[in-house]
UniProtKB/TrEMBL annotation:
<protein>
    <submittedName>
        <fullName>DNA-binding protein</fullName>
    </submittedName>
</protein>
<dbReference type="GO" id="GO:0003677">
    <property type="term" value="F:DNA binding"/>
</dbReference>
<dbReference type="InterPro" id="IPR000119">
    <property type="entry name" value="Hist_DNA-bd"/>
</dbReference>
<comment type="similarity">
    <text>Belongs to the bacterial histone-like protein family.</text>
</comment>
<dbReference type="GO" id="GO:0030261">
    <property type="term" value="P:chromosome condensation"/>
</dbReference>
<keyword id="KW-0238">DNA-binding</keyword>
<keyword id="KW-0226">DNA condensation</keyword>
<dbReference type="Pfam" id="PF00216">
    <property type="entry name" value="Bac_DNA_binding"/>
</dbReference>
<dbReference type="InterPro" id="IPR010992">
    <property type="entry name" value="IHF-like_DNA-bd_dom_sf"/>
</dbReference>
<dbReference type="GO" id="GO:0030527">
    <property type="term" value="F:structural constituent of chromatin"/>
</dbReference>
Length: 92
């Protein structure tokens, strides 16, 4: 697993920044993606992918223990669709 600190450390080493500066940049990028998602906008990062909001409708579900039917509320989910370049890089 890669953490935000590891990403920030890599950026700092590659671009001659301090770890504090690079961590601020990484956190700002994630904050921008979060802000776009909460407002319902799509975020597209070329050669990486798209973050989209998907709405799932309300549905009926069944409690397996009792067999009772319950309503599951509609929700919004954040989905990620990788770009072709990322897919190709993963499958080399």
């Amino acid at each position: 697993m890669t953490t935000t600190n590891e990403i920030a450390d890599k950026i700092a080493a590659d671009h001659g920044l301090t770890k504090t500066q690079s961590k601020t940049i990484v956190e700002a990028v994630f904050a921008a993606i979060t802000s776009a998602a909460t407002s319902g906008a799509e975020t597209s990062i070329p050669a990486f992918g798209k973050f989209k909001i998907k709405e799932t409708p309300e549905r009926d579900a069944r409690n397996p223990a009792t067999g009772a039917t319950i309503k599951v509320a509609a929700v919004k989910k954040l989905t990620f669709q990788p770009a072709k370049a990322l897919k190709d890089a993963m499958n080399k």
